């Protein structure tokens, strides 16, 4: 029989609303928020408000249920059925309800006390068990209201218990503390992918420190006995000074940092070893992210390689190609918008010499199509040799070029064909070393007709003057005159560079344009920059000359000059012979195999990039291809070894790290190196020094090979094998990413 009981109906509605709200809190703010497969009586700080609300509501309902039962005992219900069986059932239900309410009440009181103790003491249960805070620092506990408002939000205290979304005022990046049934551990929960030193950078950023300026100086060290990792940062360098912020950093919210200390003008941040190990491995298990410190999304132009169609692709162009590719790669990695430009030399008196040489050497169109670069070079050499004994050759060459620039020559179509053949041939050669360009530019794009407006502007600004040789020159402050236009009216190289820079800025609005050219061109780019400043181009300072030293000795073993394609063929043949001689070679060395080519190119690239960029050096064929030294072959060997391990070890790769299973010293050595990748990339990016990254990859390779001998994966217990495999997998990801930045193609077999 239905009893009209408004109070009971309200109770039912409120109860079910509380149940649904509890489900919402548990699913949305605890389970989904932590993304864990088990929750062992633990609540992250961001979830505390909702958990406390849930406890308070359950406690209130328990008290209300007990009051209802007591009331029913004190007062008779005249409308109720007085049947003995019904009364007995009602008594039984009341007893069960009181018992359940009492149990829920005690549970709520116990958990509420624990939660408020954690809030008001600013110390979690896990920290109390591990004694972390007592071990590392004495904490200055904020006021009670401050601690409660950090959990419940900025609103009025009366609103703290309302079931509405009022998020706490601190970051999403907070610790969720988990107690495992086998061991106690701290797990750092990431809402989004973050670097391993996120606690430190967040602490600095919260105290008004420009993280982008200090990022490359933040160094990580491990203290194996203490079970902590330390991030160290100088208080003052040429780029920044954080001495005024130190006191705030030490007093304010430390965001998971155990201890902050200062010694010898260095501030140190101590973080849990297990947190860092877990963070580093899980963060890099899928992809390797770029440094978060970089002010990215800049528009970058990198002009590199830039051979001349009249001359061989010599070693100077080879260094420009290798270094320029690295500059473009590392800028792309830090999320800049990069445009790669190959600025080909097709203009000037040399073109007249080529045209004469083609006729003198009787080079036909079929020869030009088969090997245009060598055919053009042969023509150029032929004309130059004749010019040594016949002074009229140079005059004829100048006449041919002058006619072409003025549009009066009859060789225009042939010149266009030469350019097309050259690009097709260069594209094949660049393809072998894995280099592409977004655009091919030509000097001829900025011939006399196309830059008339710029020349007129320079004349209006009275920058152009005639010298005693009837040339148009610009006089600089150091009493040096820079020729812009020759006496016959044809333009010089710097005139075309001025026009090219202006044109590229108008089309691309670049933040920086890098010219990757050797040290000998420093004076040319200094003059270019000064002239653009005098033309009142406000962006002139955005032009950067990436200098590099000369390379000596890059000739065949017979001492002959070689073209780039010849160099690549030589390196391939050397590596193929080494593979034939090695008993560990796994690939089939047939015509379809490209491993020899990739290994040879890797050796050549790394041999160049492992040195200081601006230093001259002599190329040595034996050193570059040494299998035991610090070479590109060694990096490829380590990567292939890691791939083989993953394929043959029989372990299942896990993406969840359990630091308790990775306690060996070599693990710390390897994890610290992996964590330093971002620091190294940032430093290499800021200084545009590939040797910084190359040296790091050698250290990483050495640590990986050492770990191979100490950390067995095959035939180990499944959990242990999976954790070690995760470590090696992450090491391979980082090694491969670093190799790609240098311009290498990581091999899987060799």
Automatic annotation (TrEMBL):
Task: Return the broad EC class.
Answer: transferase
Question: Which reaction(s) does the protein catalyse, per the Swiss-Prot or TrEMBL entry?
Answer: L-cysteinyl-[protein] + hexadecanoyl-CoA = S-hexadecanoyl-L-cysteinyl-[protein] + CoA; tRNA(Arg) + L-arginine + ATP = L-arginyl-tRNA(Arg) + AMP + diphosphate
What free text does the record give on domains? Answer: The DHHC domain is required for palmitoyltransferase activity.
Pfam families in alphabetical order = DALR_1, DHHC, tRNA-synt_1d
| Molecular function terms from GO | arginine-tRNA ligase activity; ATP binding; protein-cysteine S-palmitoyltransferase activity
Presence of keyword Zinc: no
UniProt domain DALR anticodon binding: residue ranges: 635-750
Chief location of this protein within or outside the cell: membrane
Query: Could you confirm whether the keyword Transferase appears in this record?
Result: yes
PROSITE patterns on file: AA_TRNA_LIGASE_I
- Species per Swiss-Prot/TrEMBL record: Temnothorax longispinosus
| SUPFAM superfamilies with a match to the protein in the record | Anticodon-binding domain of a subclass of class I aminoacyl-tRNA synthetases, Nucleotidylyl transferase
Q: Which domain of life is it from?
A: Eukaryota
Sequence similarity: Belongs to the class-I aminoacyl-tRNA synthetase family. Belongs to the DHHC palmitoyltransferase family.
UniProt GO BP: arginyl-tRNA aminoacylation; mitochondrial translation
Q: SMART domains given for it?
A: DALR_1
Give me the segments passing through the membrane. 7-30, 50-70, 91-113
Keywords per UniProt: Acyltransferase, Aminoacyl-tRNA synthetase, ATP-binding, Ligase, Membrane, Nucleotide-binding, Protein biosynthesis, Transferase, Transmembrane, Transmembrane helix
The record describes its membrane topology as: Multi-pass membrane protein
Which compartment or compartments is the protein found in? Membrane
| Protein's name in the database | Palmitoyltransferase
This protein's GO cellular component annotations are: membrane; mitochondrion
